[in-house]
Amino acid sequence: MPHKTHSPRTTGRVTMPIQEGIDDQIRELVTALGADAVRNSDGTWLPEIASELVDRVYSTYFPARGDQDWALAHPDTLVNQYLMSARVTAMGQGPLTIDVLDGYFREQFVPCYERVERFWEVIDRTSGEVVAPSGWSVDESTGVLTIAEPTPWHEYTVGFLADQVWDTTQMYNYITNGWGETDPTRVKERPYDVRKNGVWEYAQQALREWLEAHPEVDVVRFTTFFYHFTIAFNTHGEEKFVDWFGYSASVSPEAIDAFEAEYGYALRAEDFIDAGYYNNPFRVPSPRFRDWISFQSRFVADKAKRLVDIAHEAGREAMMFLGDNWIGTEPFGEHFPSIGLDAVVGSAGSAATTRLIAEIPGVRYSEVRFLPYFFPDVFNHDGADPVGQANDSWLTSRRAIVRKPLDRMGYGGYVSLALEFPEFIDRITDICQEFRDIHEQSGGELPENAPFAVGILNAWGPLRSWQTHMVAHALWYKAAYSYVGVIEALAGLPFKVRFLSFDEVREQGVPEEVGVLINAGAAGTSYSGGEAWADGRLAEILREWVAAGHGLIGVGEPAAYDKGGSFIQLSDVLGVDRERQLTLNTDRYPTLVEGHVITADLKRASAFDDGEGAGGDVYTVSERTQVLSYDDGTVKIAANEFGAGRAVYFSGLPYSFTNSRTLQRALYWAAGREDLLSRWFTTHPATEVAWYPGRRKMLVTNNAYEAVTTTVLGDGREWQLTLEPMGSAWVDVD
Question: Where in the numbering of this chain does the Lacto-N-biose phosphorylase central domain appear (predicted)?
Answer without folding.
Answer: 454-675
